[in-house]
Structures
1.
Amino acid sequence: MSSGIMQRTNITDSAIPDSVTPHPAVNLVWLAPFLLALAWFWANISAVKWLLSSFVEIPTLYKIVIGFLIVALVVRSIGNSVSAARPYGGYANEEDRPPGFSPNFVLRRDPLLLMLGAGICSIALQYIIDIKQITVLLFILGTYGLCGLLVDPNFWRKNLPVAGLLACILPFNSQLNSGLGLPARVLTAQVVEQLLSMLHVAAISSYDIIVLENGIAHVDVPCSGIKTLLVGTLFLLAATWLEGRKLSLRWLAVGAANLLMLMCANTARVAVLVLVSEVFQQPNLAQIMHVPLGIVGLVCACFVTWLMLQRVPKFQPEKTSGISAKPNSEILQNHPLAKPGIIAAVTVLAVLAQLSHVETSKMAIASLTLPEYIKSESIPLNPNEQKFFGNYPDTQTQKIRFVAGNLRGSMLTVASTSWQTYHAPELCFVASGIPVNRIEKKQLTPSVTARWLSLKNNQLSAAYWLQSAQLTTDNFMSRIGSDLTHKNHNWVLVSILFDSSLQAENHEVKEFASNVYTTVKQSLQGEINENQTGI
């Protein structure tokens, strides 16, 4: 017996068959998570590029906060490891083992749903309306879901709010004025307009401007509510993490109530500022109240949110036996095709994501051609216009001086496929030192509903509208909403400034607007009349 044992132990390594050596097995263990991670980052390559390019623009304060969160997460992980260890080495039980990493990933329900859900939502939003901040937010959350397949489930669930903090901080930095900022300001202005009308205060909102009978109020970037929503959301996530609250349906209800309170607080603040500044003619007082009102609304909303958060139960770790254990939340247990199937599903998402970035059509409208009776000449864009439109290389702009009978003035057309390239002409007029006294909604022709402006103490008049091959509107929210069903369709912003004060009912004005509308429509449809004189 003993000689048999000695003979067995004396077998040389070369006698071991290659099929049972550990090297191929180790490679296969690492191959699956590598392929999964590769497919995931391929599916989100646009978000990765945007995040890397925008990171240099993040303010220093944001970088400090991000660094603090990463350090806190590492310290907390080390602290858990030290406290779980026995005084003389080892751990009291398996669930006390510190969080670690395992290449043999486990298909747990919650991380898998977070990863796949974020990927599907990201691709769907890119097809519908592409807002990079939301895409990056979903990418970060989905990446944390991917990590949940490789780390201890209790550690993953407990620190999920940290992933939410990073997902909110990284995309929303200095680029708040674009993306969500624009529709948020437009929506805020329109809601305030409705509130003022309920108080019998005549007002009309356009883009992010509210014009009253005796003044104009600009809903600027701080009034959009995006920063308020961001800070309030960060507070909720930080409080959830520090107090160890469980992410559940009750927590989601608290989050929804928090967002609603923050939006209501911001809208009320803008309404109060408009009333104080323009109705009661106290602009200096409104300027003093601007920041304190925002802080009061934010603090009150956060305090009520914290009170509601106390009703959310605290996180209770589940009993497991290691990273590769099979807790109740694991799905598709012992299924041989489960992991290849997940890798294949993420690969399909990656292919769909790449297809969503294929440019279906470039901005290529025909040159505008006006009737012969309209004499025109091209003029250059001013420096501010050149700087703004220079950020959007696919945008086509034309600026002319015109003479049409008794009408004289200038016209700017901006053709683009993206609503983010537009801003209200009122802003250009105000920036150029031309005050806006009144804005009205006028039906210039049966096909053109435009915004009619009285400028510079009623010495000048202007009009503008947004036009596509199928639709014409004077409302920027309608233009933004069109991307939900008419993505990549060409739109043209037509802005006309007359050199004198005119009435929208003027026959020459109506005829001029009708000719411009027809010219733009022909340009969008590619129908060029060879007998007309080009600009």
2.
Amino acid sequence: MEMNDTGSSAIRNIEDAADRMIELLSQLFKSNTILISVRGVSSNPLLRMFNQEELLGLDTDGSVLFDSIGSLILLNDNRPLLVSDTHKQPASPALDFIHTQGVHSFIGVPLLTEDGESLGTICLLDAAGRHTKEDLDLLGAMAYFFTYIMNLERKLEDLEQRSQSKMDLFAMLSHEIRTPMNGIIGMTDLMMTTEMNEEQQYYMEIIESSNAKLLQFLNDVLDFSKMEAGKLFIEKEPFDIITALEESVYLFSTKAFEKNLEVILNVDSEIPLYVLGDAPKIRQIIMNIVSNALKFTHAGEILIELKSLPVHREEIGIRITVTDSGIGIAQDKLKLLFNKYTQVHQSSELHHYGGTGLGLAICKQLVELMGGEISAESQEGTGTKLEVTLYLEKYTSLPSIPFEKDVLAAIKILVVDDNQTSLHVISSVLEDWSVAVSSAQTAGEALEILAANNDYDLILMDKDISGTEATELAKHMRQLAPGRKLPVILLAPLGTNLDEETKAQFASIIIKPIRKVHLLNNILALLKHSKPES
């Protein structure tokens, strides 16, 4: 139910809190309908309704439903109320009415001031009768948290007090909630290592996922409260921008490979080793964008690029681009992408996206706070590209990889990878080092190239070539180069477990996503040992 803007900053803040509470409750409970009613804070009531599955009738004016539920709480002396079965409770007009709307059971808790004054109610309605005493206790705790915010809002007298107090509140809540949450996460991790049946494993996975969502929610709200209070400042310290990008991407790589997604890094060699800037905030921007790409990509790839730009006001220009092959965004919703508390994707039967809708809004504010720009391009069904442009002060002129461009001149390398983007990126990097590169996307194509010319210095081969076992392909390749030891480097996704027999088939193993410096060091080391010194 929509509310008219009264112009009161207190009401706007409470509306935001109600929206966030509705979103969090919808993730914690499976109830068909969630209601929040707040009265007495302004001349207009604040009413919020969320239908999870749209199973209830609700064919009347929503305010009638709010009034009926509210009257049940009032008649219960403003105490929490659980009605397991509307058929079995003593008859009353309110019970009869909500029963006609398809409500089998409901729980409701009052919103009370410190003086015991009633400000409204939070209620959960269900058609299947799934509510329990534990649900009532949890809803009561959430109502206490929500009431705490409302009580605080009513006490604040000016904008500075409001901003500072809210930031302190969120910091306190974040700290107080994190303490038990860390215990829950630790015990969950321990439980995941024990022997469990399939049903128990499923429940533990839900707990683990819920822990992550709640922590992300806390982090996002705390960050945004700091921004709105003007308490977030940009620091300038020397840091390695390439390492910051690569380490941030690696945090998500294992999960991406579990979804059978290819994660590709493409870093410009012209970027200096160290720059001056706020490393933690730049990492946060990168992780938010990569996390977003991972959430909405179910097949294909995620390409993360770091490119240098022309010098701007004696600063180093860099552009971070994250391109995915995910579900994309409709053009009419693309303009909403960086708005706070906005979801541009609807959950489906296969995928539940959730989230606070704050991640990219925080990115936008951080980027603009650093004097940069962020933009997005997308097409529904084909993927999304996000670009972040930043200008940072140069700290040193040392290059990120201290080698000449012709460091691998006169070297011949065959690259085998069934992902076209990955194949192109690896080949381009090698060509920048003056390598004579041949490339193949299939095992058959690679064997044909070797059969025609087997004088390659080494081979770079992806672990997963469609329909071909890597170790078998490596054996066939060596058979085509008899009389010499042909070094084969295996490119394996982060988190891959290889047995000793498999490892023995390869001269070296490089982890994907590939870091340029790792690639170059591996090649140089192999060439040094496979060729006699001049």
3.
Amino acid sequence: MRWLVGWSSIAARFGTAGSVGPVDDIGDGGGTVHPVGSQLLWGDPDPLWAVGDWRPDEVRVVTVDPFTRLAVLGSCGAGDEELRVGLFAARGGALRHLTAWPGSYTAVAQIGRRVTVVGDLAGARPVFYTPWANGTAYATAALPLADLIEAQLDIGHLAALLACPETPEALRDSTPYEGVKRIPPGHALVLREGSREITGYEPVASLAVAGPQRDPDLAVEGVRDALVDAVRARLLAPRHAPETTLPPDPGPVPGMGPADRRAARGAPVPGIGADLSGGSASATLALLAAGLPGAPGTVLGHGTGAGERLLAVTFNDLSSAGHDEAELERARVMAANPRLHHVVVPAGDEALPYAELEGPLTDEPGPSLVTAERHRRRLAAGSADHFTGGGAREVLDAHPARLADLLLDRRRRHLLQPVTALARAERPSPASVFIPLTVYRAARRLARTPYRTGLEEAAARLPEANRAPLSAAANGPLGASLAAMTWSRPGPAARWLTGEALAEVSVRLTGAATRPTSVQRPGEARARAALARHAADHRVFEQAAEIRSQRLHAPFLDNQVVRACRELPEALRVQPGARAEVLRTVLAGAGIHDLPPGWGATSRPSEAAAAHTGLRAAVGSLITLFDAPLLADAGLVEARVVRKALRAAAEGEPVPLDGIADLVSTELWLRRLLARRGTCWTGTAAPRQRAVAGGVVPRPSLHG
């Protein structure tokens, strides 16, 4: 795991410039404190470190004078002069300039005693902070800050994460650790001698009038340019090869080629690669990366120069549930491109979800903990720099609540195609005739519901979420769309939480309804919340499935791509198949026209089938996991209720599988966290015990 950490305080010296002895009293014991395995980017009075296995080209510092400097960590496509111009703009208060370059990165600007840490728009590169040493410490990971202040678990945050994962008002700025806070996506943390301010850097649209009519063609061109720039930024970066400290190749093995042996050792291939799942998002990135020029070779001399081919990896699920022959065939057709080298990674029942529940400790819980081994098999056969299509659905597709935005703008005719598509997705029946009217009424109800009223109604309904009847129709396209047309809805795991946990989250929602906020349109607000949730889960996925010496790149979560996608008009988004058509146009603009039949087909049904098969195979170990769960010790669930749900899901009852994954992953994360040893800090004033040293204990209240 890689992260950066720093702090700002009234104190002028912390001992970061080579001092190893005690220094002036800094509030919490006094003395030097250093993160383990770090490199100092700049020292006192407001030090900053980069921690972990950062590549040399991923850490860039531009200095104008000793107290005017900019650090950019991650993949950034800007040159040094562009970084310097951005630093001057930030000195005048224009923070948005620090987020306008291609790539995915975190920017930290120091101007005098003012330190500005800029988060991204999606939330894939979050920023956390906590009061410490008469000032504020910040980092791009929450666990190190929890170690620094020896924080306990915030049970209220875990309850909100399970009850309302896509409702920012329930999560607020909290994290799983008490005292450690998160800044919202699209905001920056500004520190002045310990004092802190959180400010947004994106313009806020007015609700007084309808939004401007944006030209669809120009909007799609903007998406194309942003995606091309995002891919090119990675291609022009120095190429990297796996570290030479890996175990040597064992030599010829019957039935295993060099790529198979490398994958068995867990080492990626030098150079650049991409997922090629057969879907539109990953295929777009693979074809763009194959067609754009890049920097030949690696920093160690690996690669084949101008003739180097992009490695395209396709995961072939051989289990009866997850196998999708049509998707595999589409990948094979696209891999016929001479610039692509296609590798198919087969896997059977051993790679099903829940098959392997051991893994590394991540910064936060996330549903990918139950599928990490499945993804790690695919990524181990990939490249040192590997493109993934994660985030495309969230930035390009229309959230069902956007139908309410169209009604607010009096564009009723644009609702015809999406509601007709929903009616066709349901089984023919006499009631199908009324589906368009049902959807229209739900959209109109949301459009006429004020923000405060919507949150208060959601808070009133939440305590009854664990009594809601199970229904197979609720999991279908129509049921999911109708449930999404609200300001807030319970998450799939809410039905198994205790009444006390749901009541406490309801209190959070009620309090949020009375606080002032910059209210957006319901569809836009719900879409941004869904993107933030996906970005947070993607960050956990990167940590859970991490392969040493490999970097995962998700260009759809880059700032510039997110901005470009937000310019797409709602009338274009809501049309059936809009994402596939937008990406088809993007590829056509890059000179790629020959796409296979079935382009844009979704893989969600096969994923759900694989999840159910994996759950059924692992139900015994999962029931054992919940014999004495830590979630029950914290008062969030009753073990008996969860075990009953696991058995029902294994028997094929209409149980929300996403909710099961949330419960299992949170329980796994808690166990890994409490089994952890050591701390992220060293020095004479380092914390003497790790975070959450007290463990999970029953509490009379879940307030964090």
